[in-house]
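ARCHIVE CARD
Drawer: 12
Card no.: 0347
Subject: one protein chain, sequence and derived structure
Cross-reference: see card 0346
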Amino acid sequence: MKVEYGKTGTYFYLVGLILMAIFIPTSKFGLSVSQFYLLALWLLLGINMRSLTFKSLFHGICYNVKTRFNDFIHNKVAVVMVSIYLLHLLGLVFTSDFQYAFRDLRIKLPLLLLPMILSSMKPLSKKHSDTVLWFFIASVFFVTILGFVKYLRRDFVDVRELSVFVSHIRVSLCMVFSIFILGYYLVKRRYNLLIKGLIVILMLWFLWQIMLWESFIGIVIVSILTVSILLISIMRNKNMIVRISVIAVVVIVLLSMIYYLYDVIHRYRTPEKIIVEQLDTHTKLGNPYVFDTISYRIEDGRYVGMYLSIDEMINAWNARSDKKIYSIYDDGYGSLVRYLTSKDLRKDAEGVSQLTDDDVMNIENGIANFNYIENPGLKTRIMKIMVAYDNYADDRDANGSSVFQRVEYIKASLNIIKENPIMGVGTGDISVAFNDYYEKSNSKLTRENRLRSHNQYLAITVAFGVVGLIWFLFSMIYPLFADKKNINYLYIVFLLIMMLSMLTEDTLETQIGVTLFAFFNSFLVFTINSDTD
């Protein structure tokens, strides 16, 4: 039986949920404060504050804890959700590094608190639950506006810096979820044409920002969910013409995406044919050119080693920059050569003279391609992956590429799992296990790049073995089958977004990631009144 706390108490509770929604893409500190605020409400709401004494306060808190914990413990879905945290507590049995373990438990506290609190509070009305989601969308939009200002100013070295508060990956997931919330409102809510027009604009804005931020996983998730929703919709439509039309559109879009990917890679790999007789042999200063198509790679459809006058280029560079280069082995040489190539400039004094001051600053900051700053997006992301692939294929050096670092993390995870397949290494010994593997395998990864799985399923298996993975998967999908009321569009979409993201991210290993998951996983099940839609 829920504790009654009236209209005023409901507004206090609503404020706490709104604060959580606002701070997920903006502030770690704000999230911590919001959770303690919700915990305080959980303890206090329902107590008569007008004639309050210490004794009545104590009894009121005891009554609230007893009643609300009883509501929680009798809610099977909530208990199963919390079991993810209990799994980490159980992992202490196999732990030797308790300092790391307790830090991990502190980060993952939302997995315990949020299902317990939200499952034992009263559901919100449709209006109130929509308000929380609109504040979330507004907060995500605010973050993208700040990032767009940085983009216009070219005030970044890496597109990840466009997310000014928290990890760009977490914000990308927030943008993906916002797109599908807005799509749901577009269909299910009776908004006027102006509001619906704004919703469409917001959806397109978030989609463009995902591509601008080069969030490959975001693009993949949007594509998979959009195709899935369209296919499910046409299966429910009895009109054969509509079915065929939608299937045709889906096929055309998929083929277009495949062709686009092929075309970008083909253009990247295929330089213009060289007509030797038409090549200039000397620079304008009279120095001979070198045409090296063997030692240097192809990038952006150009031979990096074409029109190369090393000494002349280096001398011209040193006259413009304080970051000196003296040989081809110095830091900065590779960035300079590649950057000139990306702007289709010759690697000589004239080419260096055509660089702008911003170009010089970019090269000094280690940016090796003009497009990384001026034209971020899906095409540039694919080009980065191609560069990283060439480096990794040559000497298995994954440093500098998040994609191929993940390959090394997967290798490390699988090797650790082989040694501890059933019960894992425990909650606190994950870091120790990875460090030991990197040392024993003489990994080429630098110290700062020697990270953990970057795959939540592998991270769980490393810590708790196959037994833990099975329970983790069960806890994720159990709410869908435990109660039909939980099977709603927003919850299913959010769960799929999280599960897909966990293939490339250890989402539950950071404060923002674990709070994003724990909050909406609980909010969409316990807080939204199933009778309101």
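Annotation on reverse: Strands lie at 298-299, 302-303. The chain has a mean pLDDT of 93.
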